[in-house]
Amino acid sequence: MRTRLIAVAILLGIALGASAQESSFQKRYSIEIGTGIPPLYMDYMTTADRLAAKGLEIDKDGAFYPVVSLSGVMQVSQKNEFTLTLGTSWCHHKVIQYSVFGTDPNGNPRYNMSDGKPAGWMNSGLQYSFNLNWRHLWNPQNMATFYSGLGIGYSPALGPTPVPTLTPVALRVGGDHFYGFIECTIGAVATFAHGGLGWRF
């Protein structure tokens, strides 16, 4: 808890300092929708026991891991922004259905683990994450803007432990209202790569 309070205090201090330095600057807001590589710590196979009771097994071949993020962005000065991001990810995988060859003493079906057939696709449970991030825009006046970021995130998958977020380098390209972005990042929302589209208003 103390770590989270310190991180929030630092981020608020940066925002207040930036606002004081550029008091004539008018705040702007953006909405960003993104996707990327899922966080490394996510456990998507929590449904395995539930599937086993039905004679199903997860087939990891061809599985993929969608990531969706939604961010609210507040630009507090020419070179500083704050973002609040909600992310979600899950596993979309194949399943194998095994045939029934009898019942156990409790009346539950027994499955023949050597007789399995493809049974389509299923989704694991959703994993959520929240992230508060500070960005520094290195060249905000250019159409192609580089920025870096630092933040703190949280995911129920990790319990009460906060997750630091680091974005060493990112690129935003676009006009005054619509833009695309790609980030090299590691944190609660994505790992290694995260990108998408934004609308500034």
Notes on the protein architecture:
There is one protein chain. With about 200 residues, this protein is mainly beta. It has helices at about 1-20, 50; strands spanning about 30-35, 55-65, 65-75, 80-90, 90-105, 110-125, 125-135, 145-155, 165-175, 180-185, 195-200. The longest helix is centred in the first third of the chain and has 20 residues, at about 1-20. The model has no long low-confidence stretch (mean pLDDT about 85).
Question: How is this structure best summarized?
Answer:
With 201 residues, the protein is mainly beta.
Please supply descriptive tags for the structure shown above.
single chain, 3-stranded antiparallel β-sheet, 11 strands, mainly beta, Porin, 58% strand, 8-stranded antiparallel barrel, elongated, 201 residues
Outline the low-pLDDT stretches. none
Order of helices and strands: HEHEEEEEEEEEE
| Main sheet characteristics | 8 strands, antiparallel, barrel
What fraction of residues sit in β-strands?
over 45%
Assembly type of the chains comes to single chain
The number of domains is 1
Helix content: 10-25%
Structural class: mainly beta
List the strand order in the largest sheet.
Answer: 1-3-4-7-8-9-10-11
Radius of gyration over C-alpha positions, nearest whole angstrom: 22 Å
